[in-house]
Amino acid sequence: IGKTKVFLRAGQMADLDARRTEVLGRSASIIQRKVRSYLSRKNYIMLRRSAIHIQAACRGQLARTVYESMRREASCLRIQRDLRMYLAKKAYKDMCFSAVCIQTGMRGMAARNELRFRRQTRASILIQSHCRKYLARLHYMKLKKAAITTQCAWRGKVARRELRKLKMAARETGALQAAKNKLEKQVEELTWRLQLEKRMRVDMEEAKTQENAKLQSALQEMQLQFKESKEKLMKEIEVAKKEAEKVPVVQEVPVIDHAVVEELTSENEKLKTLVSSLEKKIDETEKKFEETSKISEERLKQALEAESKIVQLKTAMHRLEEKVSDMETENQILRQQSLLSTPIKKMSEHISAPATQSLENGHHVIEENISNEPQSATPVKKLGTESDSKLRRSHIEHQHENVDALINCVAKNLGYCNGKPVAAFTIYKCLLHWKSFEAERTSVFDRLIQMIGSAIENEDDNDHMAYWLSNTSTLLFLLQRSLKAAGASGATPHKKPPTATSLFGRMAMGFRSSPSSANLAAAAALAVVRQVEAKYPALLFKQQLAAYVEKIYGIIRDNLKKELSSLLSLCIQAPRTSKGSVLRSGRSFGKDSASSHWQSIIDSLNTLLSTLKQNFVPPVLVQKIFTQTFSYINVQLFNSLLLRRECCTFSNGEYVKAGLAELELWCCQAKEEYAGSSWDELKHIRQAVGFLVIHQKYRISYDEITNDLCP
């Protein structure tokens, strides 16, 4: 190799040319192979595409022909089916018509035969009864005529004997005339007495039959009325006593039938014994009825008490379950925080172990541990200088002043701005600005909880309670949307948030799903919410705030129940002045109505609703308050109907129905946004009142009651 030229040995140039031609030939073969493969592949793709198009066209044609044949076959089957159905239906109708005609003819013939047989039997029975009556009457008349003729013959014989004696004793004309006159008088008197005796016997027999019929009817009426009611039975017994003690007045006549008198006395004694036995039975049944009524009332009271206790236990258990579920979710968050913070704690253990005192919200005594605070936060750094500690102290004092100013400002009634509670948004903004949610220890949450607790001490003022319910619920909603566990987003990025089990978790869900016009505070809250990683004090503050919201909510609900409890006892029974003319329309009470208790209930509901609206309480809470209040009204009215039987009348039913119509009108006026499902909570009392106002209850069957009245 020279400076400007390269010299090769002999034969090297040929070797290089051979290698060059070999490389060029290999490259040319590769290029030819690629070109041929490309052309063959392109040709193959074109052939395959055309084959596919041809196959698709052939298969489409085959499918169309198959479809056309199947369609024709289906139409043929349908035509055959319809024709067979028509023929079978026609044959069935003809057969059914002929069977019905034959059945009607046979049934009519059987009914006519039965009617003819009944008429014949009735006519034969009537003929037999008249014949027996005629024979009995004929026998009685013969006996009566024979008795009268024997009595007349005997008395005539006695009179003739006396006349013979007088004729033999008085042979003189004067004595004879006197005896004759005397005998004529005696004969007239005897004939008169005989006629009177006949009449008296007939009257006594008629009186006896009438008396027996009266006594039998009285006994039957007593037995029937004993089954119907006790009061009517006592009246009938007195009537029976009076009728049994009556003795038919019979004028004294010289001829007395002692057998008839003895029969009457024995029958009277039997009636007296029967009446005394009936009185004893009535007394025994009265005692048994009183005992059973007392036992049934006691059992009913026990059942109602047990039912109320069960309802209370269920509600308490439900609340405990909700609280436990909330605690479990927050415990999981805290565990995740502790797992993330364990490496830092292990690094700081060998440098510092400050002895701190923890308060309720995780606040520690700052004055004793100011110097140890930087060591626990950053274990790598050394202790700060005195100037740094002075700066921290001034910063803490300034923060305390800010917290005091916030507490003093929020403790007053700040009102609302565009439907938003000013106090709740002020607290939330200040806590965000101070980064209190991210602090490991702070006293601001304790101060806020103490302030809220002292502010709601006056439980009787619903306006004040509604103001704090609006502020606390809005603040709780803001915390619910903004607080998240530290490190929870990195640990479980795809995990869905837990479903809300408590009332106020459902309230937050309701805020998200409800329209913006109904929830101005919730819509405004979404604009200021900012996601922050919450520490333990912030999560504990959220739990305590939820407890206060529940407490204020319960106070408002209980105040309304106390106000309504005194009116509900008066609303179950119609006033005496209006029982005769209870409002039939069931729609409204006039100004001249005898009772304004229902109107007082409506006024109380309107007052509370206007108070809650003025304080912009979330509609979810308003719905819950009125739903539980209407459930309380339903329970009170229904239990009053069960315990007070005198209230279960038609007039009281009309009165209560008119009041319920007023409540329905109130629910319609309040709209579903605030009333919710309150009207459905009155289901049981509406069904009971609907049953009371039915006119002919004995015509209603059990199925009609269960299906129509109480479905």
Any key phrases for this structure?
single chain, 711 residues, mainly alpha, two-stranded antiparallel ribbon, two-stranded parallel sheet, 18 helices, 4 strands
Low-confidence stretches: 247-256, 342-385, 488-501, 510-521, 578-594
Reading side by side through the largest sheet, how are the strands ordered?
Answer: 1-2
Largest β sheet strand count, sense and barrel closure: 2 strands, antiparallel
| Run of helices and strands | HHHHHHEEHHHEHHHEHHHHHH
Q: How much strand content do the residues show?
A: under 5%
Tell me the overall shape.
elongated
Number of helices: 18
Q: Compute the gyration radius: what is it?
A: 55 Å
How many E-type strands?
A: 4
Q: Average pLDDT value?
A: 76
Distance between the termini: 115 Å
* Secondary-structure content class: mainly alpha
Helix content: over 70%
TL;DR of this structure?
The protein has 711 residues and is mainly α.
Question: What's the layout of helices and strands?
Answer:
Blueprint: H1 12-169, H2 173-228, H3 230-245, H4 258-349, H5 373-377, H6 386-410, E1 416-417, E2 420-421, H7 422-434, H8 444-455, H9 462-482, E3 483-485, H10 488-491, H11 503-513, H12 520-528, E4 532-534, H13 536-571, H14 597-614, H15 619-643, H16 650-675, H17 683-692, H18 702-709
Parallel strand pairs: 3-4
Antiparallel strand pairs: 1-2
Descriptive overview:
The chain is mostly helical and 711 residues long. Among the domains are: 412-485 and 530-554; 594-709, no CATH class. It is built from 18 helices and 4 strands. The strands form 2 sheets. Strands 1-2 form a two-stranded antiparallel ribbon. Strands 3-4 form a two-stranded parallel sheet. A hairpin with a 2-residue loop joins strand 1 and strand 2 (420-421). Residues 247-256, 342-385, 488-501, 510-521 and 578-594 have low confidence and may be disordered. Residues 446-711 form the Dilute domain.
